[in-house]
Amino acid sequence: MSFGKIIATARYLPEKIVTNDDLAEWLDTSDEWIQSRTGIKQRHIAEAENTSDMCSQVAKKLVDHTTIDPLSLDFIIVATMSPDYTSPSVACQVQGQIGATQAMAFDVTAACAGFVYALATAENFIRGGMRRGIVIGGEKTSKLLDWHDRSSAVLFGDGAAGVLLEATEEPSIIKQMLRADGKQSQALTAGYHANKNIFHEEAETSPALTMDGRGIWNFALNDVTKSLKEFVGEESVDYYLLHQANKRIIEKIARKMSEPLEKFPMNLMNYGNTSAASIPILLDELVETKQLSLNGKQKIVLTGYGGGLAWGNLLIQL
Ligand code: ACO
Predict the structure, then answer these.
(1) How far apart are CA 76 and CA 5, in angstroms?
(2) Pocket of ligand 1 (CB under 6 A)
(3) Is 243 an annotated catalytic residue?
(4) In this structure, what are the phi and psi dihedrals at residue 227, rounded to the nearest 5 degrees?
(5) Which residue CA neighbors atom 35 of ligand 1 most closely?
(6) Which of 48, 179, 236, 302 gives a 20 to 30 Å CA spacing to 259?
């Protein structure tokens, strides 16, 4: 049997930066509130670009930097909760953009746990015989928001990032644990499609993102942390790449794990919560600054959690 190995990473952030002070121009909020409650200082916001454009940029970088032939790709999987369309998938759009005509392509919807779900899925395809593929987390969350709702508009940002995965003989993605609690599905909703047709009318419902912030906070500190503890067990881990939603949540999880905060790198101050893109953006930055090496001996854990509610952990020997 073969196993998946991350060969390359890449990210793409839209050019426009929106600071907390910019938001305070039309929202009853402040830089002080946002930074002290979340750690976020600014976020990138896509203008004309859509999710598929950002994801295609990531795929192009992965192909160009590694000089692989796009025809050698067996799969393209995109994790997103903000696709351009209900159909086609973002992954199919990316496949067309880079000319990877031999690759199967589909999207995974697991909100902020999306990248972990997608990478676990890709690993299982490689264990089943596929040889090479791309996994991307990409979001234009800005189009899901009510920009006049201060409780959610200040939290999110746009971006995309991903990895090239290839078959090798030794396991690299050593262990996976994926979980969901659909009873709490209303804790975070976005992009509701009006349930109407010629036979049925429905009162207008806003498709904008709604979030029970405190509910998700408790879920992160209880369910997610409990599963992470169980998952890690006695394993010695170099770095934990947690979903980048809130600095205070990450600090509290580090404390509950009895691990030093230095093992929990963060970049949410620069990007806000980019949902499925947050973990691969962080991964790519750490590889770029050489804090992580893809040829090295480091062991990392990726933990995503959010809407669904869905969450998951991966243990990776890089
Ligand atoms: N500026 C100023 N005041 C604000 C703002 C704002 N942007 N937003 C809310 N407030 C006010 C509230 O109205 C409230 O005022 P009140 O006390 O007069 O009613 C007060 O600040 C406190 O509000 P809380 O919601 O209790 O603030 P809290 O400390 O819980 O922070 C936050 C809110 C940041 C959302 C936090 O709960 C959180 O991070 N939750 C987790 C979110 C998360 O991790 N999501 C990840 C999943 S996302 C996904 O899957 C796509």
Answers:
(1) 15
(2) 29, 33-34, 37-38, 111-112, 150-151, 154, 188, 213-214, 216-217, 220, 245-246, 249, 273, 275, 306-307
(3) yes
(4) -70, -35
(5) 213
(6) 179
